[in-house]
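Hey, sorry to bother you again with one of my protein questions. A protein chain has come my way and I'm curious about its shape. I'm sending you its amino acid sequence along with the backbone structure tokens. I owe you a coffee for this, so here goes:
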Amino acid sequence: MNFKRLGTIGAIAIAGTILLSSCAANEGTPAETDAPESTLSGTIDGSGASSQGSAQEAWVAAFQTANPDVTINYDPAGSGAGREAFIAGGVDFAGTDSALKQEEIDGGFAGCVADSGYLQVPVYISPIAVIFNVEGVTDLNLDAATIGGIFKGTITSWDDPAIAALNDGVTLPSAPITAVHRSDDSGTTKNFTDFLNKVAPEIWDAPAADAFPYTVGEAAQGTSGVVDAVTNGTNTIGYADASKAAKLGVVAVKVGDEFVKPSAEGAAAVVAESPAGATASATDLSISIDRLTTDPTHYPVVLVSYIVTCLEFTDAEAAPNVKAFLSYITSDEGQQEAATSAGSAPLSAELSAKVAAAIATIK
């Protein structure tokens, strides 16, 4: 196994996480006999968004079945860790729920040929669920201001009047709230805090950020850490990619005059009507999500997760495998695989065409 450039995240971390699923994928059902034989071989390494975890496992398994001489390692270490590893040349690609900052772009990427540019394309669109585990409560309505107050620590009891006013007929316990947030730099956190800052700035006065901005509540590592803390705690609330909500309660968030639960359809709808991001170009397809929509067919607490990689690699052997893998995961087949395994929203036809054109420029 080739862990050629794993300095910043550690070969052991990758070997101990996704390598198991990578090896298992090579033992899966072989490609159909009439499919063309793959000529690809080698190893590529990725790291980043834990929100992509379930989708990446499915993508890796399917791709390695079709290309048995390729090994793909993906470490769901978090968006911030993935971007740092890619910038330093430690991995071939990064998964991130938070688009590259201009200063990250300006600093360059160690694994890319100097001045050759970079690729940033959306691969995974998913709602963020506000998850809860509250004794005796199965349904919960909250608006942005109340969510902000809970996670900022200004609303501390489940029977607070602000919560009760939104949940007529629900018996709320007189119990302290344990609000769980990410301890690591997280694109999920940045999207969640962007929603709160845009919709309820009078409450959530901190700008969107990968790092949770307030020193209140309980912190947990990664998506799985937040889900575990909410699941195993008492009267808890947190936020996570909706695919990981499992059997926890899911908040219906106020959009316009209605309360809306997360759905792939609602996520896709808001992304489709959102403008390009500040750094956007032909090969940077970042999106600035419209958090202020009042259309109840939209769900604005959504993340767009990207893959960031080189247009030209200093290690030329990585290029064909990265290009083929990204072409697969953003294809109709790959997007359907993610929808089935992780409940994500497939890329629209228009966005998919732009993504394909951008990936085609990898050389």
Summary: DSSP finds 13 helices and twelve strands in the chain. The chain has two domains: 11-30+38-125+276-287+302-359, 127-270. Residues 1-33 have pLDDT under 50 and may be disordered.
